[in-house]
Design a protein that fits this description.
Largest sheet: 2 strands, antiparallel
Order of helices and strands: HEEHHH
Number of strands: 2
Distance between the termini: 88 Å
Shape: elongated
């Protein structure tokens, strides 16, 4: 009886394969899955390193508030005030919003 359990355990270990990367003993299907996943990750890294670096998107001049002309700044403040005084925010006047932004 003890011999049969020992034989079953030996057969279970015999069916396991050694994963070279982690050093674990795993089933054949798990080993194949891990190898396939590693190959895909390696291809991704090779493509990423071979691809040219992405250029930074150009920003509009209106996005940077430090060098806005007064009329553009007032236009943006008006848009902001209009959005805040929509029916959902009706307790704020447009003038209060513009003054708070300054």
């Amino acid at each position: 009886m003890a011999d049969s359990r020992a034989n079953e355990a030996a057969e279970g270990v015999a069916n396991l394969h050694l994963d070279d990367v982690t050093g674990e003993r795993i089933s054949k299907t798990e080993l194949k899955r891990r190898q396939k996943l590693r190959a895909q990750e390696e291809k991704k890294q090779q493509r990423a390193s071979a691809a040219p670096p992405k250029a930074e998107k150009k920003r509009h001049a209106e996005d940077d508030e430090s060098n806005l002309t007064p009329n553009v700044r007032d236009r943006q403040a008006g848009r902001h005030a209009f959005l805040l005084t929509s029916p959902f925010h009706s307790n704020i006047s447009r003038f209060e919003v513009i003054e708070s932004r300054d």
